[in-house]
Write a structure and sequence with these properties.
The chain is α+β, with helices and mostly antiparallel strands. Helices cover about 25% and strands about 30% of the residues. The protein is elongated and about 100 Å long.
Length: about 260
């Protein structure tokens, strides 16, 4: 009965973490480029009271043993980088990725961060920057006399100047990873490369499996509210049944203590 108390407590802790993960997904249902998280569980160690294949007193072999599990533990909370819906933003500088890949961003410490959020604007010097003022990598500058900005599917940035001439100002590169789920989430819609994610492979959009770019669009969160609500109900019921198992074990211990 004491074993059941501790086993059920692991279940309650696991379901609480599950609800925390769902809450984070729902909180970011309207976050541009957000990717939902999924939690994975594993069963804990087993206490073997009788091993399978053990011999009985008369020399026979038992086909099944007796093992009692000791609960559950969370093993990973992974990001699911499925495509979010694209919506027209009304801003010609906004760009969405259709397919795999990340925008490259120069962070304040000089390292490169990665994001799916293509909400771009111009700073005071005409540089394309994110909502936090971070430069793209490589940096792209739009002349002050530009009348129109065009971003191709391959990331080529062209402008029409006030004299009618057309110039190319650079190219928005896209980075892909062997294991994007291994990226380190930094907040602010940014990710950082890790040993688990592998080294970034950067290049033009549409090449080597990279997604293409859509000008004037942003990518919405890939969170499905209905799915998250169903998951929340399942987590709540699992939490309740584990708490009931604790109460049942407590009542059995109370009955044992009252024996005379």
């Amino acid at each position: 009965m004491l074993r059941a108390l501790f086993t059920s407590s692991t279940g309650m802790k696991a379901q609480q973490l599950y609800v925390d993960t769902i809450a984070h997904n729902l909180a970011n249902v309207n976050t541009t480029g957000f990717k939902r998280s999924r939690i994975d569980f594993q069963d804990l160690l087993y206490q073997t009271l009788k091993p399978a294949g053990a011999e009985t007193a008369d020399g026979n072999q038992v086909p099944e043993g007796i093992q009692i599990g000791l609960g559950v533990k969370p093993t990973a909370i992974s990001k699911l980088f499925t495509q979010g819906a694209l919506t027209q933003s009304g801003n010609d500088l906004d760009v969405a990725i259709e397919g795999d890949g990340f925008f490259q961003i120069i962070l304040p410490d000089g390292t490169v961060g990665y994001t799916r959020d293509g909400s771009l604007n111009l700073d005071a010097n005409g540089n394309l920057v994110t909502n936090d003022g971070f430069f793209l990598e490589p940096a792209i500058n739009i002349p002050s006399n530009a009348q129109q900005v065009s971003i191709g599917q391959d990331g080529t940035v062209s402008v029409v100047l006030d004299d009618g001439s057309i110039t190319t100002q650079g190219q928005i590169n896209i980075a892909t990873f062997v294991n994007p789920a291994g990226l380190h989430a930094m907040g602010k819609n940014l990710f950082r490369e890790t040993d688990a994610s592998g080294t970034a492979s950067s290049g033009a959009a549409g090449e080597n499996g990279r997604g293409t770019l859509a000008q004037g669009f942003i990518e919405l969160s890939n969170v499905e509210v209905v799915d998250e609500m169903v998951n929340m109900i399942m987590a709540q019921r699992a939490y309740e049944v584990n708490s009931r198992a604790i109460r049942t074990s407590d009542e059995m211990l109370q009955a044992a203590n009252q024996l005379k």
